[in-house]
Amino acid sequence: MLGDAFSADAAIRLASADPADGVPDGWRALDIGPATVAAFADVLAPCRTVVWNGPMGAFELAPFAAGTSGVAEVIAALRRALTIVGGGDSIAALAAAGLTGSVDWVSTGGGAMLALLAGEPLPAVEALAIREG
Questions:
Q1: Residue 36: inside a domain
Q2: Residue 12 falls within a domain, yes or no?
Q3: How many angstroms separate the CA atoms of 7 and 4, rounded?
Q4: Nearest Cα to 72, choosing from 95, 88, 48?
Q5: By the 8 A CB rule, do 117 and 51 touch?
Q6: Nearest-5° Cα angle at 41, 89 to 101
Q7: Residue 118, in any domain of the structure
């Protein structure tokens, strides 16, 4: 979804599905559209573990919240997958959609969660381990 401003009052229009078309002058890409939400649904359906960190667009502006809400609904509906959502914005989007209780794990520390998954040391966890050791 495109907007002519970062505003809830922005004019909006659906972007071309062809990335080669780009974003026209005077417009901003502020959300994913329904076809992209459907593409996420198709890709995520067979997954056994899903980690989501970060909204799909400017979800805090009502005209650009549908993509993030749509992906939240897709993730919340995955019954065969372990679903992990991290980061304050992602959690706010889940809460706005009434889906916080529909995922398996929520982490307010999105950046720390990604660092942990990447195998990076977490200083606070290391400090606790040293104190116990």
A1: yes
A2: no
A3: 8
A4: 95
A5: yes
A6: 45
A7: yes
